[in-house]
Design goal:
The structure is a single chain. With 117 residues, the protein is mostly beta strands. Helix content is 9%, strand content 13%. It contains two helices and four strands. It has a four-stranded antiparallel beta sheet with strand order 1-2-3-4, with no helix packed on it. The protein is globular. The two termini are 27 Å apart. Bound molecules: zinc ion. Zinc ion (ZN) binds next to loops.
């Protein structure tokens, strides 16, 4: 049976305004999405317009601003795909974040749907 918890979180489920309010601004055309490490499953918020990786859900000033020069997971040092897609149909399935994974991560606040009382 289909379990909706296993569906991939679409970028449309992410509250861009809330992220900006918490200091996640980049250069004004923010386009956020989530990815996870293909090895240890740690989740990262990425900003696709300028291509930035936001590392810490509690402090959005902690970033890697040059992930296109090569990005390694801060937990397990796994090499993210270099000069290849991380997200979308061309990105690896192993890097897609499901609802269950987001709900269980410290990033859950970015999706209002998970935080209804
Ligand atoms: Zn990792």
């Amino acid at each position: 049976m289909h379990n909706p918890d296993d569906d991939v979180v679409p970028a449309s489920a992410i509250d861009f305004d809330l992220i900006k309010k918490r200091g996640g601004n980049n250069l004004g055309e923010e386009d956020y999405d989530v990815v996870k490490c293909g090895q240890c499953k740690q989740i990262y918020l990425i900003e696709c317009e300028v291509f930035t990786v936001l590392l810490d859900p509690a402090d959005l000033s902690k970033r890697d601003n040059t992930p296109n020069e090569g990005f390694h997971c801060i937990s397990c040092n796994w090499s993210f795909p270099f000069l290849e897609a991380w997200i979308g149909p061309k990105g690896p399935a192993s890097m897609r974040v499901t609802w269950k994974e987001l709900a269980e991560s410290p990033w859950r606040w970015i999706a209002p749907q998970l935080n209804k009382t």
